[in-house]
């Protein structure tokens, strides 16, 4: 919830420092034990996170896991295709139910235009009783979307374009703009491989808030957790970690220069992976200006590199 630039404060020069941990089964075996150990690791990182003057409004906490396919098949009321043939993710939407519904409809249109179709939406079960007023006041509406129509990297690339278009075209408030970012359309993740639960929470609040994380049917072979200490950055729901491909600990003090160079290089981007030159333009700006922290910018760059096929990272 960043205020406007005032006095010596300028949101363009914010940086942050945090705590991160990972638990993984080296043989790729999904289990509840991995999820539980990751959450335990997160709880042990509470000293690396922070809260404001109101101790129940955290700077941020989250977990990245594999898409919990078996669990999702039991909790949705529509049929899902084979694992890896659908993309899913939680959408952070406007607080107003009317605006949230309009945003969902707009996302569906973008998905159709990009070659995927929305199978359905799921209301994400949450419990905000442990949250402080600041965190609750900024809390978005949560809806989980399911999209199909491709598989493998084709699915990942189309989901990437849909997410970029949704966040660019449907609007995202960021540091220095009016309000706490309530009119946001933001996807912590949208993939057929990985799934993120995160928010403006303390480390103990993550599992208490997202009821899915309390369900023993939710399993994964990996868990990446993050406890955020927003050193010089104001907390918000979208800026919690993990991001879609990274969870970052520390500060990148050259972030402004890095972003400027990335923007300059956009004119040189040439690829047939996303289609025509006009299709490539949908991805710009690669670094979303209003979600501006060093890890957020690095996240934007890393996602682009990965879906373009230049980064071999894969979670199966």
Automatic annotation (TrEMBL):
GO terms for biological process: ammonia assimilation cycle; glutamate biosynthetic process. Pathway: Amino-acid biosynthesis. Coiled coil: none annotated. Residues 18-316 form the Glutamine amidotransferase type-2 domain. The keyword Electron transport does not apply. Keywords: 3Fe-4S, Amino-acid biosynthesis, Flavoprotein, FMN, Glutamate biosynthesis, Glutamine amidotransferase, Iron, Iron-sulfur, Metal-binding, Oxidoreductase. The keyword Transferase does not apply. Its cofactor is FMN; [3Fe-4S] cluster. GO terms for molecular function: 3 iron, 4 sulfur cluster binding; glutamate synthase activity; metal ion binding. PROSITE patterns: GATASE_TYPE_2. It comes from the Bacteria. Belongs to the glutamate synthase family. This is Glutamine amidotransferase type-2 domain-containing protein.
């Amino acid at each position: 919830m960043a205020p406007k630039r005032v006095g010596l404060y300028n949101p363009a020069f914010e940086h942050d420092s945090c705590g991160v941990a990972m638990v993984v089964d080296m043989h790729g075996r999904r289990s509840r034990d991995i999820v539980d150990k990751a959450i335990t690791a997160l709880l042990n990182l509470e000293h690396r996170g922070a809260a404001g003057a109101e101790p129940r409004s955290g700077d941020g906490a989250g977990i990245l896991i594999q898409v919990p396919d078996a669990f999702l098949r039991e909790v949705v009321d529509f049929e899902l295709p084979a694992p890896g043939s659908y993309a899913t993710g939680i959408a952070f939407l406007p607080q107003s139910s009317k605006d949230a519904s309009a945003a969902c409809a707009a996302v569906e249109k973008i998905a159709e235009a990009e070659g995927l179709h929305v199978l359905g939406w799921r209301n994400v079960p949450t419990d905000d009783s442990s949250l402080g007023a600041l965190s609750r006041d900024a809390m978005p509406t949560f809806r989980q979307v399911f999209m199909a129509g491709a598989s493998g990297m084709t699915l990942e690339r189309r989901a990437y374009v849909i997410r970029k278009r949704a966040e660019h075209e449907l609007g995202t408030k960021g540091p220095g703009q009016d309000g706490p970012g309530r009119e946001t359309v933001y996807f912590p993740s949208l993939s057929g491989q990985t799934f993120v639960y995160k928010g403006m929470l303390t480390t103990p609040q993550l599992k208490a808030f997202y009821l899915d994380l309390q369900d023993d049917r939710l399993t994964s072979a990996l868990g990446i957790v993050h406890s955020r200490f927003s050193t010089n950055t104001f907390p918000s729901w979208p800026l919690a970690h993990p991001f879609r491909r990274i969870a970052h600990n520390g500060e990148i003090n050259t972030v402004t220069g890095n972003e400027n160079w990335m923007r300059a290089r956009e004119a040189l981007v040439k690829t047939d992976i996303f289609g025509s030159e006009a299709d490539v333009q949908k991805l710009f700006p690669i670094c979303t200006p209003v979600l501006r922290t060093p890890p957020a910018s690095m996240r934007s760059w890393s996602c682009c590199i990965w879906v373009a096929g230049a980064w071999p990272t894969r979670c199966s």
